[in-house]
């Protein structure tokens, strides 16, 4: 079988638009996931039993239900209740909620790993619990959790391919259209495979560099 990629040349612009839409959705979903994850992590480490129960229920629900089911619920189910959301917003919202469930575990672990002496020192200095948490605990937890949070982001990129099922022409959605137009699915999906692999690899490298930069003092101390 001869691999002929020249048939994709006229569709490069169209595929680039899909890639851009994927990048936009994933970028917004990353921000949403971090916000959701931080809020849920705070609730899960709260002294309030009610908050902890709600947070655990959220995590258990969205970690144990297939993402495509969640996506269909928001896109096809909510209109039955009179709530209409466009495909792009639905995709970002679904990715943010699902990603937040996983991010909360990572951030919570980062919070619990903080040396209690740091918190005690902040309290002795007269800082309120809220200030201590927002200015000291959470930043440290996020800094030390960069690498595992990077895995959550990579998973968001891969999961975003499912958004094509709600008529959103992101990277996978545009690839489906091109494959249908050209009758060359092998060539199209070979390129798609390479693009996703390259994208996630680049993101993983960037996350690693960011981790080293933010934790340079800890790494230098360990080497010394």
UniProtKB/TrEMBL annotation:
The reply to whether Lyase figures as a keyword in the UniProt entry is no
Q: Which GO terms describe its biological process?
A: amino acid transport
Q: Which GO terms describe its cellular component?
A: ATP-binding cassette (ABC) transporter complex
Name the UniProt key words of this record, in alphabetical order: Amino-acid transport, Cell membrane, Membrane, Transmembrane, Transmembrane helix, Transport
Membrane topology per the entry is: Multi-pass membrane protein
Q: Which family does it belong to?
A: Belongs to the binding-protein-dependent transport system permease family. HisMQ subfamily.
The protein depicted here goes by the name Amino acid ABC transporter permease
């Amino acid at each position: 079988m001869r691999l002929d990629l020249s048939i994709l040349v006229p569709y490069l612009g169209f595929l680039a638009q899909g890639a851009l839409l994927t990048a936009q959705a994933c970028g917004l979903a990353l921000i949403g996931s971090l916000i959701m994850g931080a809020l849920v992590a705070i609730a899960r480490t709260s002294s309030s039993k009610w908050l902890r129960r709600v947070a655990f229920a959220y995590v258990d629900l969205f970690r144990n239900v297939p993402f495509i089911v969640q996506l269909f619920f928001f896109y096809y189910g909510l209109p039955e209740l009179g709530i209409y959301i466009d495909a792009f917003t639905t995709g970002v919202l679904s990715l943010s909620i699902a990603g937040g469930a996983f991010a909360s575990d990572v951030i919570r672990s980062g919070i619990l790993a903080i040396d209690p002496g740091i918190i005690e020192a902040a309290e002795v200095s007269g800082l309120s619990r809220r200030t201590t948490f927002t200015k000291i605990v959470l930043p440290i937890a996020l800094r030390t959790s960069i690498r595992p949070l990077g895995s959550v982001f990579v998973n968001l990129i891969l999961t975003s391919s499912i958004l094509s099922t709600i008529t959103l022409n992101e990277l996978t959605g545009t690839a489906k259209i091109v494959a249908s137009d050209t009758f060359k699915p092998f060539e199209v999906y070979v390129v798609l495979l390479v693009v996703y692999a390259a994208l996630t690899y680049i993101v993983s490298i960037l996350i690693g560099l960011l981790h080293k930069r933010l934790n340079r003092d800890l790494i230098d101390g360990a080497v010394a």
